[in-house]
Each structure stands twice: as C-alpha cells, then as structure tokens.
C-alpha cells in the first residue's frame, strides 16, 4: 500500500508519521522552506516527549506515472485548487481531500477527474515548533477522522481506507453525507475562530464574557440554519448545541477556550491560519445569506 501526503503542515505531518509507524510505504510532498527542512532533518515529531524521526520519503516533484493507492490532500482551503491542478494529470485514482471547505465536490472532480475525490476531514491539532511536530489526534468522542464517498455508498476504497486508519490507530467514522457534515463543522468553527480575532488578547478569549456569549449565540444560530436547510445535523450530537440553554453554552465555551484542549485544537489553527479562516467565514455567511434570500423570495410567490 503506497500512500502520499500532499502537504506537510501540522495535519499532513501527523498523519504521515502515524501511517509510517503502522508500516505503510509513506511519502510526503512538500515545497519551500518546509521541503528544505525535511530534506535536511527528516520529519521530526514528538512521541512520549521524545523527538522521533518518521520513516517517510520526501518528494519535491510528483510525476504523472508515480501512482499511489491513496493521496491525502492536507492543504488549507485557499491552497486547494492549486493542489488539485497539480494532481489532475497524476495516475493515482483516489485523492482523500482532508480540507476545510463548503464547495461542491463535483467542482473538484471536474478539475482533477471523475471518481477521484474521496471527501474527508482530519481529527487532529497541534503545531510545528523548531521544526518538530507537536500534535495529537482529537479524542474520538469529539471528532474522529471523518470520510465518505460523495455518493454515500460503502465502496471497496472506503473499506480499504478504514483498514488503513484502523491499522494506524486513527479513530475514524464513516458518514452518509460529507457535505452536510462539513457545513455543520464550518457552522461551529467559524464563530470559534472569530472569537480569537475579536479578542484584544486572543490567548485570553475565554475570559471575555461578551465574546463567549456572542460565540455561543452564533454557534446556535448557524446550526439551526444548517438543520433547517439540510433537514438534519451531522453528526447527530451537534443537536446538543441547540438544546443547551444559551447561558450554559456560554459558560461551557468559556471553559473550553481556557482549556489545554482549546489551546491545541482551536487556538493554534485559528492563529496560524487567519487568512483561511476569514475566507471560510466569508463563504459560509454568504452561503447562509443567499439561502435565506432564496427562501424568502420563494415564500412570496
């Protein structure tokens, strides 16, 4: 089984190290300063507080006939289309898109080939400091690695991907509709990131009651919108946010923002990828506004 990780930020580096530990033939594709670091030092990561070097190959150029069983696309949303352009002529048959996005998956397949896209989303967080990855998987109960065929069918490649995650000790879940799942995810993470950008001291956002109240209110509103538009939330546990009273949800959000979990899985990405998160903010709320306007127009007919 040959695996390629396209993108070597926190997410790509973590999954690459886990796949390599599990014994898979793992290659990472990198560019720029990160490429030079990987060539010089290798992929270094913390394991039980000890710096370890992952057994991965480092690639700076992907040839069309260089085939992999799965290509894991772990780039930011604002780098997605450039990456798909690079991959469109490669002979590999499956691209696992582990990217924050609300775009139509058919749009991606029109670009890189019909049947190539397998939508997914990682469950991980952390940082790279002094060229060493310090990251971990999100607890399964909160957010396992999530994926599904665009059609929702349980195909052979879905089963093969499940086995890869299982062998790599990566918690995972298979859902019926990745688009709805990603809408729900964005409904949650957009206001979470907004809170950091609005706070005078982002690291202390959890102590700003007005910001936490605004975040909890936006989270409820966004998920109510998705449930009304799509008919359901995915995963089902997202409904809990709708039933918890606003004052209690505000308190819970304050606690999470102040926790080590919040620092690793929320703060780090929001601070390190503000351009991506602000673009996702724009796209999500534009989508929300357009759907509301269309619904109001139809009700007047």
UniProtKB/TrEMBL annotation:
Q: What Gene3D superfamilies does the database record attribute to this sequence?
A: NAD(P)-binding Rossmann-like Domain (3.40.50.720)
Does the keyword Transmembrane helix belong to this entry? yes
Residues forming the Ketopantoate reductase N-terminal domain are 4-120
Ordered alphabetically, the record's keywords are: Membrane, Transmembrane, Transmembrane helix
Provide the coiled-coil residue spans.
none
Domain of life from the UniProt record: Bacteria
Q: Where are the transmembrane segments?
A: 236-257
Task: From the Swiss-Prot or TrEMBL record, give the protein name.
Answer: Ketopantoate reductase N-terminal domain-containing protein
Q: Which organism is it from?
A: Oribacterium parvum ACB1
């Amino acid at each position: 089984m040959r695996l390629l990780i396209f993108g070597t930020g926190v997410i790509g580096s973590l999954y690459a190290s886990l796949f390599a530990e599990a014994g898979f033939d793992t290659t990472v594709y990198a560019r720029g300063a990160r490429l030079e670091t990987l060539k010089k030092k290798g992929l270094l990561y913390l394991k039980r507080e000890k710096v370890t070097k992952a057994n991965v190959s480092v690639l700076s150029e992907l040839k069309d006939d260089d085939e992999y069983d799965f290509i894991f696309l772990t780039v930011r949303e604002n780098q997605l289309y450039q990456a798909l352009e690079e991959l469109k002529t490669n002979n590999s048959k499956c691209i696992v898109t582990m990217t924050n996005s609300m775009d139509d998956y058919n749009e991606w397949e029109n670009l890189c080939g019909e049947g190539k896209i397998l939508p997914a989303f990682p469950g991980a967080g952390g940082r790279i400091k002094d060229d060493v990855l310090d990251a971990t998987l999100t607890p399964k109960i909160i957010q396992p690695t999530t994926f599904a065929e665009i059609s929702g069918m349980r195909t052979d490649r879905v089963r093969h991907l499940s086995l890869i995650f299982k062998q790599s000790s990566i918690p995972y879940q298979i859902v019926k509709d990745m688009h709805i799942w990603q809408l729900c995810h964005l409904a949650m993470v957009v206001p979470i990131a907004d809170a950091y950008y609005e706070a005078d001291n982002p690291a202390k956002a959890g102590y700003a009651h007005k910001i936490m109240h605004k975040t909890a209110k936006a989270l409820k509103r966004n998920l109510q919108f998705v449930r009304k538009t799509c008919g359901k939330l995915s995963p089902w546990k997202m409904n809990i946010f709708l039933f918890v009273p606003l004052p209690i949800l505000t308190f819970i959000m304050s606690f999470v923002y102040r926790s080590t979990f919040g620092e690793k899985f929320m703060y780090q990405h929001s601070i390190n990828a503000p351009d991506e998160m602000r673009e996702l903010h724009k796209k999500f709320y534009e989508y929300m506004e357009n759907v509301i306007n269309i619904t109001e127009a139809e009700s007047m007919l």
